[in-house]
Fold each of these.
Amino acid sequence: MKNIIERYIYAVTKRLPEKMREEVKEELTANINDMLPKNPSDEDIDRILHQLGHPRELAKNYRGEDRYLISPLFFDDYIQTLKIVAVIFIGISLVFGTIDAVMNIDADTIFGSIAEVFSKVFSNAFNSVVTAFAWVTLIFWGIDTAARHHKLPEWKTKDLPDLPKPHTTKISRVESTIGLVLGTFFNAVFIVLIYRYIDVMGIYENNVMVQQLFNPQVTNPFIIYLIISAVIGIFVGTMKLHYGEWRISLAALYTTYQVLSTSIFLLFINAEGLFLPGVYSTIGGYFTQSPDVIRGYFDDAILGITIFAIIMLGIDLIATWVKTLKSKRA
């Protein structure tokens, strides 16, 4: 228990402003000595110091005010603003991250490109969150610091916020965030494959391509529409994050995007000449079937995918509008 009283006092005073330390040291030393019996034992010292409390708590009491990076006066506004700014930053970063992933891939292989797209999309999203946190925190720290030294401006009743609408159907922000990031990633991967690796997607024998699958003259015109669809999807995703509830304007925007993206996808897979003619003959050779028969199988598969996509689109949009209009009627 050597120098235990001095060490306790130091643990308190080191957490105080320098101009207070000497005065508090003298006061605390006198108080401890008054509380201790003559010739105190180690147990007496331990008991008295624990009666005084944790050095952190005692330093807080001497300091006279709580210290915050963002005080409770502004903390709720800080959290709300942080959510909004983070959503905006994520949306912007995903748009530019997708464009960068499509236009500036350095990898030489398909799997390397997918890994690079993954890295760019997710790192951009993470960096945008960190940047939003840093800027919003710095701005609110400045506002909070200024407010501690100046009286808050006079408030007016017209500035009070509107009451929230009751019975709204909430949108999970966690699910929306995951869907936004993953959707951006898969869209970027698909565009990169079509844009950069169309000539290596084919039928291989002994690691040698014997037949290319897709016709570049058909796929290339779709690239710009796929990029536009991906950007609109990012915008819709950020709006879902921002509002956090279904409303008519958001449902209309979501419907427009889903119809647009599904239409582009269906036009793509149903495009005449999407598959090169040699694909049907090559596959037919493996199964001793004529190219026309194989093409018929392809057409049936595409028709099935088309019907399935339309059904899923209808179910999704009906569910969306039911939730939206249900809350509106309520």
Amino acid sequence: MLGYIVRRLFQAVIVIILVTLGITLLLHVLPGGPARAILGPRVNAVQIAQFNHDNGLDQPIWVQYGTYLGQITGLGPVLGGHGWQGVNFGFSYRLNQSVGSILAQDVPKTMLLVGLSYAIAIIVAVPLGIYQAVRRNKIDDYALTGASFFFYSMPVFWLGILLIGVFSFTLHLLPAVGPQGDNVGDLFTQLPALILPVATLALITIASFSRYMRSSTLENMVQDYVRTARAKGASDSRVLFAHVLRNAMIPILTLIGLSIGYIFSGALITEALFNYPGMGLRFWNAGLQQDYPVILGIIVIAAFGTVMGNLLADIMYAVADPRVRYSR
């Protein structure tokens, strides 16, 4: 098991290095270079040269990459003999604030939104998929399958607009704008405003997870170990929950890790739609304002979260199915 985790950690580090290398290279393909993109089109040559010198952009590309990697890991000062001074994602000239402080304010809010959506999706999708498998080819299975296809094929922005139209403008039950505040505690004081943003992400995720859970349950219900358990006199509920459930959950564990990137992209649109003050809305506004340090910092965080999600899924997969530890 330890060797399996070490291999996965090594692969995760390689992926993160490649992502950060790609980000460094992207800085040099911006129209007019990073200085003109950050300082604006009216900047003159002297200001560009000074900006490049102050930020090390006049150094060779490999030196710039090493500096950037040292900043986002906090190891640059350590290697220079000054001790660890924390992670540095750069400085936003548009907001006159360090990117690290911006992310520290916004990331917890996005984690709250995504975490609640994930938790609700898993709690609802797993029993829903099992129920559909047990009731396969019945009218309720067909109805739930139709609803799953409806929400699964629905674009995130369109589902959010529909929910706002129905519950905010027609029924006047819920606010059309997400909760506002500087920290996560402020958001908890506005729980009604959380419902629509969370529901927008959760409904699509439930549709996806429940389909996988139904298929996985059906596949396991025809396996030999199920027939053996029934031949020994085990009840249907015991077979389902003591034998089938654990094996049927394995694809869901993998899906949880693999879908983190998709959930983040959905959160970006959802936060922009509901004006939810998280990382997604910040990314949206930074794109409109061409605030590249913020954009790059959020990309690094999103890439790290996606890689860690995949790593967690691999570990959970190995715990659920011990054969994976030796077959990979």
Amino acid sequence: MSLSAGFAQASELPKPLTKDDFIAFDAKQARLGQLLFYDKILSGNRNISCGTCHHHDLGGTDGLSLGIGEGGEGVGLKRTAGKGENRIRKRIPRNAPALWNLGAKQINVLFHDGRLTKSDLYENGFNSPAEEWLPKGLPNLLAAQAMLPMTAQFEMAGNPKENQVAGAAHDRIDKVWPILAKRVRTIPAYGEKFVDAFDRVNSPEDVTMVDIAEALAAFIGTEWQSFDAPFDDYLAGNENALSMSQKRGLDLFFGKANCSSCHSGALLSDQKFHALALPPFGPGRTRLFDPTARDVGRMGESDDLEDAYRFRTPSLRNVTLTGPYGHNGAYPTLRGIVEHHLDPLTALDNWTPDQAKLPAAPWLQKIDFLVQDDKREMARVRSRVDIEPVKLERTEVDDLLAFLKALEGKSALKLPLGRPAAVPSGLSVD
């Protein structure tokens, strides 16, 4: 590939993504997964679906800093925190991660803290929060991930005593899945579709949560594939695919700005964990012994002090569509998160709570920014920064942002299946 003089050399750039870089999913299973993805039948109180927080209209996310899970109403910025006894008890502690290219073969870790990886530790193929209770037979990391949100109290399961699923979740995680599988397979339309989509399913009675998870994975893994951005055309040898500003941004990204030290490879993520001193807020993903609201990131999974406040590097594919940004959605704009990377501690000092996109929940307002008043915790956050400040002119930041726009796929807003108009359960579709 011949690149214009003055811009990043071919040896510095990733290899282009191709169809061969992705798991080959079954088309019938993907179409079935589309229905399940938007069907609230998989939640304890039948009031939230995967699609509620990973919506097509919002680039596969929810447009919020911290999500409103079980008990909320609506989608995106119009989502409310519910009312009366059904109102939410807690915000989702972290930003809803984007779904782009999660079906890539090179993906080896999921969630902001990496709590799901491939592993033989529990003899089921994965190291996950379900440990040995995760069933065998899940074909890939994405299917294993699909099993987990529906067991989480504040995401999809609901509160204790509200429903059978929530009760099971507080007994043992694996007791949730048979309940949900029975709900699905006893709906005639679903039973028929599973028999048609899976060779191993001979009758609706055979359907298990493993089959449901595999269908969800097939949908997510095919629907959110994206490798037709101007950047991809440029990698394929078309030097005219990028504007001059985008080429300057590319040169900064792979050079002076040092973005590619973490956002590397074809997915623009090293799949590792880094501390950026992002402004903390919200309930935090606390551990059993944490005395107050906080989020120690990767350390919560690894129990290694070296991992404190480190979070997984996100892919930048279609990043223009997936704000707010950061593991807790601290920045509503790309410029904000880019400028934070350039000078983390100054940005931390200058951050203001009004930047967080949090639907009103007056009963939670005391905890929303409580961590900001904890001087010791804020000092700990400040003490862990893995990136060095970089001085860029505003015009250079403009060029970086132009390059990030070049990572947006041409078909990203026109995905193959989209949101279904209706689902077999007859429940409403968000």
